[in-house]
Amino acid sequence: MKLASERAVVVFTLSSCCMCHTVTQLMADLGVNALVHELDSDPKGKEMERALLKMIGGRGPAVPAIFIRGRLVGGTNKVMSLHLAGELVPMLKNAGALWL
């Protein structure tokens, strides 16, 4: 949780995950300077991945896990749904991740 609160937007990923790349690219395209934390590059990555899996309810992949303002928003499906519904950008603005 400490890592998830370090910036307005934090994305936990695995370097080999194509959905992780999609979400981080979306954030970059929107102009968000997200902190991207690749779990497979961290010695405690497996432990962190298990903790993320618990946080999301134990179903589905643990990554990507997107936190906005320290709160778990969800994974790819949730973030893309928010974006398509026009709700992601206002959420990012409220978190101070976007200045537009």
UniProtKB/TrEMBL annotation:
Family from the record: Belongs to the glutaredoxin family. CC-type subfamily.
GO cellular component terms, A-Z: cytoplasm
UniProt entry keywords in alphabetical sequence: Cytoplasm, Redox-active center
The species this protein was found in: Eleusine coracana subsp. coracana
Subcellular localization: Cytoplasm
Keyword field contains Cytoplasm: yes
Record protein name field: Glutaredoxin domain-containing protein
Source organism superkingdom: Eukaryota
InterPro entries given in the database record: GlrX-like_pln_2, Glutaredoxin, Thioredoxin-like_sf
Domain Glutaredoxin: 9-73
